[in-house]
Every structure is written in C-alpha cells, then in structure tokens.
Amino acid sequence: MSYFEKHNIINQPWPEADLEYLGSCPLCGSVRRTLLYEGLRDRVFFCAPGSWTLHRCGGCNCAYLDPRPTPESMGRAYERYYTHETEDQKAPASLLKRLKQIVKNGYLNRKWETSLSPASQTLGMLLPRSIKAIFDEGAMRHLPRPSGGRALLDVGCGNGQFLSLALSAGWQVTGFDLDQKAVNIARSHGLDVRCGGFETLPQESDCFDAITVGHVIEHVYNPKELLANCYRLLKPGGYFWIETPNISSFGHMHFKDSWLDLDPPRHLNIQTWQLLQQMLCEAGFRNITPAEWRPEYESRYYASKAIKCGRDPMKTKPTLMGKIMGRFVEFGNRVDHTRREFITLQATK
After folding, report:
1. Which of 92, 125, 148, 331 is 20 to 30 Å from the Cα of 63, by its Cα?
2. For the chain, what is the domain count?
3. Whole-angstrom Cα distance, residue 242 to residue 333?
4. What are the pLDDT digits (tens) for 25-76?
5. What residues contact 210, with CB distance under 8 A and at least 6 apart?
6. CB atoms inside a 10 Å sphere around CB 339
7. Kind of pairing, strands 151-155 and 172-177?
8. Is 247 in the same domain as 154?
9. What is the CATH number of the domain that holds 228?
10. Do residue 300 and residue 161 come from a single domain?
11. How far apart are CA 345 and CA 259, in angstroms?
12. Which domain holds residue 67?
C-alpha cells in the first residue's frame, strides 16, 4: 500500500455511531479542560479513519481524546500494528544490525542468564553505560532474577517479544492481549498467552511474583481499573513495572501535534509523571520510584520529524541532526526525569 493510499484511509470519517463522547476526564472526572489539538489523524500506521480532538485536563493535567472510538469499534484502529510483525517478516538486517544483536544477546546472556543466540559476551562487557541501560530497561524491564521458577504476567503482551526474553531468563511467563493477530504470533512461539483481558486469568488474588505493563495503559478505557487488577494479582512484596508516553516530555514540547506518541486514536489518554505516581499510590502500590534513565529521545526524534514533514514515520533513517538533538536532549533528561519521552516506574505491593 502506497503512502498516498494510506492517506485516503485516514481521511475517511470514523462512523458517528461508533463514537463515545465523554465531556469529562476519564481519569479524574474533572470537566475543566483546554483544547490541546483538533484535526489529529492516524499518521503512524495509517489504518484508522477519523479526525480526533485531544484535550488537556484542568484537574489532573493528563491529555485525553474526546470523542473516542467505542470499545466495540476500536479493533479497526489496530488492523496494521507493529505487534503483527514477526522476525521473519522484517527486511534482512544489515551487517551492523546483526552485529548489534550479537552484542546485545551476549550482554543479556551474561547479566540475565538468558540463552539467546548468536551472542558474544566479550563484546557485551565493553559496552558503555548508556547502551547497557537500553538493554536492561528496554529489553528486560529491570526484572529481578527469578529463583525457583517465579511467575510473571505481562499485561498487553502483544506478540510476546518481552515474554520470550523473560522465559529465557528463567521466569514462568503468562500474558494476555486483546489483539488476536498478536496473540497468534505469541502462541506460535510456545508462549502462554490468552486473547482478552483480566477475565482470562484466575480471579483469585496474589498470583504473580512480577507484573509488567509496557505501553498499554495509554490504550485502555479505564486505567485505574487496570492498576487495581494488577495490584490484586501481584503477590505481597511482588515487583511491578510500568511504562507509558509522557505528555510533558521534551519531544511533545518540540513537535507538538506531530509528536509520535500522540498516536490517535489508539492512545486514549497520555499521562504525566505526577499523575501516574498518584494513581499507583491510590491503587496501593508502595516504593514507587522512577526506573533508571536510558536514552530514548533520538529514535523518537526521527519518527516525529517524519510526521512533521509528511513522511511515513515507520520508514525513517537516522540523520546527523537527529543524533545531535538526541545527545543534547538526553543530557537534560538525565537531570530532569519529568521531561523524558516515557514515564517508567517501578513499585512493589
């Protein structure tokens, strides 16, 4: 499908019968709000028709869509999505990318006792701290090492990429996702993944030693209910990890309505550090702390710049300006975590 054909899809309206109107913030209930953007369209995956309006809540400061697709109709916004891609569908990796994968596998095998291949542990030992941070948090989500085959749940697990890593590191893994295509891919790798939500899991409490929620809460209609279910299922003293886009990030400040992580209409709500910490606290979690910094702006810069220039963000290439901007912004992000692209928090029950 060409770039222009994709545009024809997104320029069609979302059916009025499949819209729900809120009138108030879905997180705090406040009716006070300001218009952030209107006329937003799906310029990331080009599969969701409709024009969308994003508001900024005057109570909790989150951003949210109103109107938004009904839960029954939301599936059409995921007809094309990154979790539908398998490794064998990707373009052949360059020599440099293959070398990076070997180094990454070696580092993960050494630190997390995974069994990834091909790998070189020697090269992994020489990595700078910034690259190790990407592997630790981006790939392994700062999981503690399992002892005795500990149980892990990944909420909204997509195609199971993270679950495969956790399984290799010795965890007993379970996941669920609403997207049947992504679930089928995960199951093809032998993973215990259910299609649906929390109703697919045992209804008793204290089931899992660790629960992770990676870039999911911004997609759900009731974020507080998600956190309450995670708290219920987590064992006392268990590990909780969550990551979501940050509406107060430098990337959003710079690119505004072209920021990659607006991603309408899939991202129903986009939060701030303070708000997500408050919701975790209200759900009962304790020891809530920001995860260790990792560089994340540079890759988002390329995609957001492509959106701003009317190009496909999924087919961008690194530029010298992107690298310069990335280094500059990351220096500030290490000092002020509230401007990072993602909100990444760890907590316990």
Report:
1. 331
2. 2
3. 18
4. 999 999 999 999 999 999 999 999 999 999 999 999 999 999 999 999 999 9
5. 143, 144, 150, 151, 152, 153, 171, 234, 238, 239, 240, 241
6. 18
7. parallel
8. yes
9. 3.40.50.150
10. yes
11. 22
12. 3-82
Q: Are residues 76 and 154 in the same domain?
A: no
Hey, what are 223's tokens? 């974020």
**Is the distance from CB of 343 to CB of 244 less than 8 angstroms?**
yes
Of 91-100, 143-152, 247-256, the range with the lowest mean pLDDT is 91-100
Do 289 and 242 contact (CB within 8 A), yes or no?
no
At 345, is the secondary structure helix, strand, or coil? strand
Which pLDDT value is given to residue 10? 78
| C-alpha span between 41 and 38 (Å, rounded) | 9
Round the average pLDDT of the chain to a whole number and report it: 87
pTM to 2 decimals? 0.88
Residue 257 CA to residue 309 CA, distance in Å, equals 12
Structure tokens at 246: 């940050």
Q: Could you write out the DSSP letters of every residue in 142-175?
A: TPPPPSSS-EEEEET-TTSHHHHHHHHTT-EEEE
Q: What is the pLDDT of residues 140-168, one digit of tens each?
A: 888 887 776 699 999 999 999 999 989 98
Asked, for residue 137, whether it belongs to a domain, the answer is no
The H or E element spanning position 298 is helix 297-308
CA pair distance 116, 107, nearest whole angstrom: 10
In a domain, 28, yes or no: yes
